[in-house]
Specification:
By secondary structure, this protein is an all-alpha fold. It is 76% helix and 0% strand.
Amino acid sequence: MQLIESNGRFDVSSQALNDLSLQTWNKIIIFPLEIDLKLLKDYLITKANSALQLENNCLDQEAYSTLLETPYCCLILLNRRRPGELQRLFIQTYESAFSSQNS
């Protein structure tokens, strides 16, 4: 009886850890549909194009901030699994990937 009382807390902790890890594996992850991602990408591109035209016609702070935000959103959309890596992305890497995609 003393053995059960002395080791019981470790058994409970071990079982609790197993339950937590099992819940992590069984967690439901909802992914967006491909068509929704395409709609978002198209929206971002049209928003950036309209902001670019507005910025070319007159200097507008809102258009400029939109031009800054849309590529950032596209990169987050592209790399949505590891958003922290966006901070470490070199401009040359982005430009080379973008130029190879357009050709």
